Amino acid sequence: MTHKRVLVLLFGGRSSEHSISCATAGGVLGALDRDRYDVIPVGITRDGAFVLERDDPTAFALDPHSMPEVRDDGSRVRWPESVRSRELTVERDGVVTSLGEVDVVFPILHGLWGEDGTVQGLLELTGIPYVGSGVLGSALGMDKHFTKTVLQAAGIEVAPWVTVTREQWEREQDVVADSLRGLGSPLFVKPARAGSSVGVTKITSAEGLSGALDVAFAEDGKALIESAIAGREVEIGVLGARPGERARASVAGEILVTEGGFYDFDAKYLDAPGVELVCPADLTDEELAEMQSLAVRAFEAIDCAGLARVDFFLTADGWVVNELNTMPGFTPISMFPKVWQASGFSYPQLIDELIELALQRTPVDETARERRDRG
Question: Are the beta carbons of 5 and 104 closer than 8 angstroms?
């Protein structure tokens, strides 16, 4: 009989994307092959407590009227005391119970305190393999300003932008306003470190800037003000490299906005009207090949691993990267699994592939420990 991997599914978290992380966990719990994996669902409450959750996909269904969340039931999951152990334990009512030795962690976390390198740093300290990008790639991918800076340095076209902090705006509003003159209109105002279109506002005049920044600053102390790009919104998935190969890009999916708005949180997750997802997108072979090449280049420039979704605009002058997401929305209806399903991976197969990629990566401490033990 094939050895069953012990998989920790880590979800929830302190960010405003808590419920989307829970919904993704529900989808993954329902798709995991229990003949291959023993699953330990670990939720992170909105206050940051690690609790042992139910292994029940229906408990985390995406319901617009009652969004899923991790509730504090008093249990506390404890990570290993050193890298010489991968044993997870849970304490409840003063009693500590072993959850067994862990093979791999799947951190399905979106936003700050989860997708930004913080949890990845915790997992590096424990020496447990995990799905997705490492500390650097996660941190860069989470911060839109630094993502754009790195991609621009790599010769990849990005939308023009200005970055402003809350302190700058309070101190130098006229200077900030002057810096926007070359960006045109309309503009998008976004938190630098948030996803799922949380805190994003489209403005068409200078009068809307202050209110839009207030919305963005409610999510992060740093905001981006970007030119609106005229073009088709097209997204593509990237999977990390197998040994001896480069990363792989999927077919593309297109977002068609039919009622004058933009692809916001409600459209992404709550089935709001006016948006249609088309997969695969209607592209020429040449357009798709160039998009796939740029997506892999962006993935490598940010030092990603495991998976990413790269969002583009197809303009009259070619491809422009909008954003890169190191832990994209992963509900069964999200674009990332859709483009890979259209590329030949079922949802369960995609999860299996991500876990295998994680197991192939050697944690930094493993190499150092092997040297120390030999010496």
Answer: yes
**pTM of structure:** 0.89
Q: Which token pair is 300?
A: 């490598």
Phi–psi pair at 14, nearest 5 degrees: -90, -10
Whole-angstrom distance, CA of residue 9 vs CA of residue 18: 14
User: 187-191 and 318-325: which strand pairing?
Assistant: unpaired
| Cβ(86)–Cβ(127) below 8 Å | yes
Residue 319's H or E segment, with its range, is strand 318-325
Rg of the chain over all Cα atoms, to the nearest angstrom: 21
Tens digit of pLDDT per residue, the chain (375 long)? 456 789 999 999 999 899 999 999 999 999 999 999 999 999 999 999 999 999 999 999 888 788 899 999 999 999 998 999 999 999 999 999 999 999 999 999 999 999 999 999 999 999 999 999 999 999 999 999 999 999 999 999 999 999 999 999 999 999 999 999 999 999 999 999 987 678 899 999 889 999 999 999 999 999 999 999 999 999 999 999 998 899 999 999 999 987 655 555 555 555 555 788 999 999 999 999 999 999 999 999 999 999 999 999 999 999 999 999 999 988 878 899 999 999 999 999 999 999 999 999 765 555 545 544 554
Domains in the chain: ranges and CATH: 5-130 (3.40.50.20), 140-157+230-344 (3.30.470.20), 161-227 (3.30.1490.20)
